[in-house]
Design goal:
Blueprint (H helix, E strand, L loop, with lengths): L2 H21 L6 H6 L6 H10 L4 H14 L2 H6 L3 H10 L3 H7 L4 H8 L2 H19 L2 H13 L4 E4 L2 E4 H20 L1 H29 L2 H9 L21 H13 L8 H4 L5 H34 L4 H12 L4 H16 L4 H36 L6 H25 L6 H25 L5 H25 L7 H23 L6 H5 L5 H6 L14 H5 L8 H30 L4 H44 L10 E2 L2 E2 H8 L8
Antiparallel strand pairs: 1-2, 3-4
Helix pairs in contact: 1-11, 1-12, 1-19, 3-12, 3-16, 3-28, 4-16, 4-18, 6-16, 6-27, 7-16, 8-9, 9-19, 9-21, 10-11, 10-18, 10-19, 10-20, 11-12, 11-19, 11-20, 12-16, 12-19, 12-28, 13-16, 14-23, 16-18, 16-27, 16-28, 17-18, 19-20, 21-22, 21-23, 22-23
Length: 665
């Protein structure tokens, strides 16, 4: 890399480290460390959560999919649009979970089910999360090593050590510092700053790629595929393995079923100022993701053009030679596109993308470290201790647990031989927990007849089937008929049936949902322990508004944001429906598909990148200042530490016993 490239990287790194040092002064309690004080605004949530999806491993995973499926992946994903938008606007799961005031999902499980169930799910989720996270730092480090142009092996203390291991150690150390400094407060603010900086740099890279590659060059490469494997025509892609229509349909189901079940961003679920702010953060996050689409696709298809088009044959030979020096077939496959990107980007632009990657690694890894380290303490140690931690001791234990997670993932990444596609590995490891947890979460939040026995049965069934599928697939390899997504889908369906049947057989009385959600006669209890309540003016709602989840908490501006997102989704789903009908009656030519994707796959996403860069930079900056104002004036509640007593959070149980609560039992 050139000196100019390193300047981009250095400035970004100094900004992030400076913010990390500054924010640690605002962390004063367990709730601050775990949930950012529960005072985050919608834009802060949207940008910081989104930065987790900008890490090097996410780019590598996206490049893998695009290289195999091209634009056909986008086409079939449009099936998911109506479902995904309804989940976002209704606040499905997210809204009710925030009403429980639980810091972690397993804490909610103790409130709703039992302490033993909390401990078991806490450990199971922690275990699945660890091995899921285990490949992320090493792939990110390998990406950076390849992209920067470092040699595969370097001498270290008299030994020949893989360079990516040294890079992983450095990046994990910086990430660990940021995570330990101020907990979720530091993670949120640094991730938000990283996200806003990245959005601006996206525009620089997009402009360079459009200038460097013509659309005709790109489509010449994408169109040169055998029958049944098209990267442009989704109706000529049915022979593609793994990432096809059936994968998308199963992913649509599991994404709804597993809403909020996977806890790699668990702290964000309880960090919103109100349940409505959490919901709006999810809605806005959808808009921000549209702004990133152009960069990911342009980088991937331009890199493919660089490698396969005759005009770049000489440069491609150099890339392939360097690729052959990387040990491991799967590693070579993952690094093929990143290495091409490294060679094709000009000075300055290369540094800008490197800064995006490194900031994304910090955002992704810090969120994972915070989630899995704190979940082990909150959902395994805290329930098992007879004597609760003191506030300072509690934070100290949280920090040690997070540090231990960092050490584990370094060792795991160094010794584990990865043989799956990244997204397949994620599907398999997530299914260990989500396969049964989805039914338990949805049933616990929405069904008063769900029982502890039903929860145990569903979780054990889903987890056993998922783990059994992983082991069988590993042993039989090519002889096993199901891939990772199919294992996850089947396990989830069976777990739902088990939860319903066992709950109906064992339910003796309905569960008190209003107390858990602080509604009705129990609404004042949350306010007594310092919970911020949004005003709920009596705004009129039409039938359509009620159908899509727009309630009285939506202001006029909120409605514009939510409705515009819904309309945006409806338009794309309509294009999808018309396109299917048209192609069944009169199939489009390859030239038509080239023009279609030029406008839909590149042109419109580029415009969205510009709009979201301005929009979310303003909103994120505003919410960061508001966060600090709230933290300055907030009263510290030392009882708000994740402990549950008698199916209530500890601070609420104390408030109830001290006589302030007038609700019935």
């Amino acid at each position: 890399m050139h000196t100019i490239d390193w300047i981009f990287v250095t400035i970004s790194l100094l900004i992030v480290l400076g913010i990390g040092i500054f924010t640690q002064r605002y962390m004063r309690s367990v709730a601050d460390f775990m949930s950012g004080g529960r005072v985050a605004g919608r834009y802060l949530l949207a940008v910081s959560k989104g930065e987790m999806q900008a890490g090097a491993v996410v780019f590598a995973a996206s490049f893998e999919v695009i290289a195999r499926a091209g634009f056909t992946w986008t086409w079939w994903q449009w099936i998911n649009i109506p479902v995904g938008l309804l989940v976002a606007t209704t606040g499905f799961v997210v809204y009710r979970y925030r009403e429980t005031r639980a810091m972690t999902l397993a804490q909610f499980f103790e409130i709703r089910y039992s302490k033993r169930f909390r401990v078991f799910t806490g450990f199971l989720g922690f275990f699945a999360g660890l091995i899921n996270f285990g490949i992320i730092p090493v792939i990110g480090a390998r990406f950076i090593t390849t992209y920067v142009g470092l040699p595969p092996v370097m001498p270290f203390m008299g030994l020949e050590v893989g360079t990516h291991l040294l890079v992983m150690a450095l990046l994990l150390s910086i990430t660990l510092f940021l995570t330990l400094a101020g907990g979720q407060i530091t993670v949120m603010v640094t991730d938000c700053i990283e996200g806003m900086l990245s959005q601006v740099l996206y525009l620089l890279i997009i402009g360079s790629l459009i200038y460097m590659f013509s659309w005709s060059e790109i489509t010449d490469v994408l169109a040169d595929r055998p029958a049944g494997h098209s990267l442009l025509n989704p109706f000529d892609s049915m022979s593609l393995e793994d990432f096809n229509l059936w994968y998308v349909l199963m992913a649509a189901f599991t994404s709804v079923y597993g809403t909020m079940a996977w806890q790699n961003q668990s702290a964000y679920n309880s960090a919103g100022l109100t349940p409505h702010e959490n919901r709006m953060g999810n809605i806005l996050g959808r808009w921000r993701e549209y702004g990133k689409q152009a960069l990911v696709y342009l980088l991937a298809i331009c890199a493919m053009t660089y490698l396969l088009h005759p005009d770049f044959a000489e440069q491609a030979r150099q890339v392939m030679h360097e690729l052959s020096l990387i040990p491991g077939e799967q590693s070579q496959s993952q690094m093929r596109i990143p290495l091409a990107v490294s060679h094709m980007l000009p000075v300055g632009v290369k540094g800008a993308f490197c800064a995006i990657l490194i900031m994304g690694i910090f955002g992704c890894d810090s969120t994972h470290l915070h989630s899995w380290g704190s979940l082990f303490v909150q959902d395994v140690l805290v329930p098992l201790r007879k004597r609760p931690f003191g506030p300072k001791q509690h934070i100290r234990v949280l920090r040690r647990s997070i540090a231990a997670v960092a050490v584990f993932v370094f060792i795991f990444g160094a010794v584990f031989p990865q043989t799956e596609f990244i997204v397949m590995w994620w599907s398999i490891t997530m299914a260990i927990y989500v396969g049964g947890a989805g039914a338990v979460i949805i049933g616990g939040l929405y069904w008063k007849k769900g029982t502890t026995a039903g929860a145990w049965a569903a979780l054990l069934t889903g987890s056993t089937l998922s783990v059994g599928g992983i082991i069988t697939r590993t042993v039989l390899q090519g002889d096993f008929p199901l891939n990772g997504m199919q294992i996850s889908f089947s396990s989830s369906l069976i777990a739902i049936g088990v939860y319903v049947v066992v709950s109906l057989l064992t339910c003796q009385e309905d569960y008190n949902m209003e107390r858990m959600l602080h509604r009705g006669a129990y609404e004042q209890l949350g306010e007594k322990v310092g919970e911020t309540r949004a005003s709920t003016p009596n705004r009129p709602r039409g039938l359509l508004a009620r159908a899509v989840g727009i309630d009285e908490n939506f202001t006029r501006g909120d409605k514009w944001i939510a409705v515009s997102l819904l309309l945006w989704g409806v338009i794309w789903f309509a294009i999808f429906a018309v396109g299917i009908t048209w192609n069944l009656l009169d199939p489009w030519s390859v030239e038509t598909w080239k023009t279609f994707w030029h406008v839909v796959g590149i042109g419109i996403p580029v415009v969205m990148s510009l709009v979201t860069a301005v929009w979310f930079t303003w909103g994120g900056t505003r919410d960061i200042f508001r966060l600090f104002q709230h933290l300055k004036t907030q009263v510290v509640n030392e009882l708000d530490d994740g402990t549950v007593v008698g199916h209530q959070n500890l601070d609420e149980a104390v408030a109830t016993r001290t006589g302030g609560d007038k609700h019935p039992d």
